[in-house]
Amino acid sequence: MPEAPVQDVSPTPFEGWRDQEEEAVYRGTVDACLDDPRVARRLDARPGVTADAVREAMHTEAGIARALEPCASAHAGYRRSAEKLNAARRALEQARSAVGYDVRSVTFWICVAVFLGTAFIQRTFFPDLSFWRRLATAGAVSIPWVAAVLWVLGSQRSQRNLRNQWTVLRYRVLRAVRSVGVRVETKRWSNELRRIGTGVVVHDVIDALLGDDPHSVLVPDSYDGLRAARGHAYIVPGSSTEQLERTLSMLEGGTVAVCGPRGVGKTTLLDSARRDGDFTVAAHVPATYAPHDFLLSLFVQVCERYIAREGHEVPRFTRLSGAVRLLRRLRRSLRLLRRRVFFAVPAAVLVALGSAATVRSLWHRHHGSVWTSAESAGSRVAAWAADVWRGENLAAGLAVTVAGLGIWRLRRSTLWRRRLRAVPRTVCLAAGGLLLTGPVVSLPLDAGLRRHTAALFGQRLFLVGEIVLLLGAIALWLTGHARGRIRLGEHRIPAPRVYTPAALCCLAGFAVLFWRTPDAKALLLDEDHPTRLVCAVAGWMLLRAASWRPRPAEPVLVTLCRDQLYHLKTVQSTSATVNAGLPAPAQLVFGHASSLSTVPPNFPGLVDEFRSLLTRIAAQVHEQGHRTVITIDELDRLGSDTQALAFLSEIKAVLGVPHVSYLISVAEDVGAAFVRRGLPHRDATDSSLDDIVHVQPCTLGESRAIIEKRAPGLVPPPAGAEAPPYVVLAHALSGGIPRDLIRYGRRIIEMHERTSSVELRDISRRLVLEELAETLTGFRTLLGKQPWTPENAGVLHAYRTLMAYLRTGCPCVTAALSEFAAEPPAGAAAAHALPEGAAHLIHEASAYAYYGLTLLQIFGGHSFERRRGAAVLRGRAGDPHALAEARLELVLSPYSARAVIDEVRRAWDLPPVPAPAPLTAIPGPREERCETHRPG
Question: How, if at all, do strands 628-633 and 589-597 pair?
Answer without folding.
Answer: unpaired
